[in-house]
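## tool: complex_structure
## caller: assistant
## args:
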Amino acid sequence: MRSFEQHLQEFETRGIAIAAISVDSPGESRKLCDAKGYTFPFLSDPDAAVIRQYGLLHPKGGPDDHDISRPAEFLVDPSGTIRWVNLTDDIRVRARPEAVLEAINRLPAL
Amino acid sequence: MQRSWNLPIWIGFVIVVIALASYIPVFTQFAVTRDFPWANYLLLLIGGGALAVGLRRAYRDPLRYRGKISGTILGAVSVLLAGFFVFFIVYLGKQIPSAESALHTGQRAPAFTLRNADGKQVAFSDLANNHRAVVLIFYRGYW
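## result:
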């Protein structure tokens, strides 16, 4: 997240919006954004409905057996077509902004 | 005869504690030290080495050096802590469901409307408006 925040200008220049999604409530997201200085939107999917639709449900992955999202990054064009996906198999290893920017450059006509 | 403090034991233990406590606040901030935690493994090796040196002389020369008991306890605690760290890195962090069911490139991303950190409704179309594409970062939450 921090590295995406640092590259935010670069994404914005290329016309790419960024948003984060988790089961956290808006209040928890507010705390996180204030603490870490994140300025892009953090969206709240408390019952994991959207997370489930994207096939990312990690059943009982959170505290008290709460369902959460597995980590993943999607690049979606305005028509709603997925253009690039990164699915990690390790919660510590996430997509680097450089990799996403590269994927954006490789795409034929967004 | 006054036995001298066995400093390497204590220094080694402090380095081991630093090695483990620093991963999340410091080394996960940078992809090079996060994806493979070599900086922490290196610190663990240095701390473990110092502990080994201290323990060795505590047992070889107990008349001159303290540390047989404290060194054994600190050494055992260090091994336990380091063991848990490695267990987290190589096993726990990988306990996520398979990505097979996840949507893939070329598929249609379901539209959504969710509340942002200020409680306001934000639709996918709001994000995509005036943009070439949107990066959606799904994360575990509960930070």
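## assistant note: Chain A touches chain B through 68 residues (CB under 8 Å). Chain A is about 35% helix and 25% strand. Handing back to user.
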